[in-house]
Design brief:
Length: about 250
C-alpha cells in the first residue's frame, strides 16, 4: 500500500514528518477526504507553543481548517459521495448528553475535535465522520474554501449579538478573525466599522479593504477616538483577540 508524508505532533512544540499509510474507512459513516489545503489556526500555533497554550496529545495530526475532495465513503453515508468537494466542521458533539439534548451542544461533555483529539487536516488524507463534512461548490477557490471554518465562527458569534443595519461596530483585533467580522458587518450594512490593533501592517490592510478606521491603540486614546468617529460610541464591540493589551 502507498504511504504518505504526515506531520505528527510530538509535544514540546515539535512536528515530525513520518511516512505512514493513509487512513482507511472504519465506521459505516466514515469518509476519506484528499486534502487540498488547510489553514493555520491560532489553535494550531497555541498547540505548538512552548509551553503549550492549548492541549493536544502527542501523536496527533493537527489542523482543522481544511478543504478537500471526497475519495471514499462508508455504506451509511448519504449526503456526500466520491468526487464531492467538502469543508470541515471540526467540533463533533455526541448528541446524547444532557447538554446536547437541551440544544446546548456547545457544552457537550463528550465532544471530540478534528485536529485536536482526532487526526486532522495537515495530513494529505483525512478520515472523518460524515456529519463533520459540508459539501461546497467546486468553483470556490481553494484558499477561500479553507476560510469556511473560521468564517463560520464569526457568523455564529454575530447571530448571538443583536444587530441592526446602521449600527457602529468596533472590533478589537485586526487579525484574520477580526477582519472576517469586519467584512461580515460591512456586508450586513453596518454604519462605521472600526478596527483596533497594535500591528501597523494589520491596520494598513484593514484600511485597504475598506474599513472606516483602523486605530493603533498604542498611539491614540481608542475609547475617545471611537466616540469621536461614531458620535455616541460603538453599538457593538467584538473581542477578536482574547488577550489583554499591555
Amino acid at each position: 500500500m502507498n504511504t504518505e508524508l504526515v506531520p505528527i505532533f510530538r509535544g514540546n512544540g515539535v512536528l515530525e514528518y513520518v511516512e505512514r499509510q493513509p487512513p482507511q474507512l472504519v465506521a459505516d459513516d466514515d469518509v476519506i477526504v484528499r486534502i487540498e489545503a488547510c489553514g493555520i489556526c491560532g489553535t494550531d500555533l497555541n498547540i505548538l507553543a512552548v509551553p503549550p497554550a492549548h492541549k493536544a496529545p502527542p501523536g496527533i495530526v493537527i489542523g482543522h481548517e481544511g478543504v478537500g475532495i471526497v475519495a471514499q465513503v462508508g455504506p451509511a453515508v448519504k449526503h456526500v459521495q466520491p468526487g464531492d468537494r467538502v469543508v470541515i466542521a471540526n467540533r463533533l458533539t455526541c448528541g446524547k448528553c444532557d447538554y446536547c439534548r437541551r440544544g446546548l451542544d456547545n457544552q457537550c461533555t463528550n465532544y471530540q475535535t478534528i485536529g485536536t483529539t482526532i487526526d486532522g487536516a495537515f495530513a494529505p488524507t483525512l478520515r472523518a465522520p460524515a456529519r463533520a463534512l459540508w459539501k461546497i461548490d467546486p468553483s470556490v477557490p481553494r484558499d477561500d474554501a479553507a476560510l469556511f471554518e473560521p468564517l463560520s465562527c464569526a457568523v455564529g458569534s454575530i447571530r448571538r449579538a443583536p444587530f441592526q443595519p446602521g449600527d457602529n461596530v468596533a472590533i478589537i483585533g485586526a487579525g484574520p478573525m477580526g477582519l472576517l467580522f469586519a467584512l461580515l458587518y460591512r456586508a450586513m450594512g453596518a454604519g462605521k466599522v472600526i478596527l483596533l490593533d497594535v500591528a501597523p501592517y494589520r491596520l494598513e490592510f484593514a484600511q485597504e479593504i475598506g474599513m472606516d478606521a483602523a486605530l493603533n491603540v498604542t498611539q491614540v486614546d481608542a475609547s475617545a477616538e471611537v466616540k469621536r468617529l461614531t458620535g455616541l460610541g460603538a453599538d457593538i464591540v467584538v473581542d477578536a483577540v482574547g488577550n489583554q493589551i499591555n
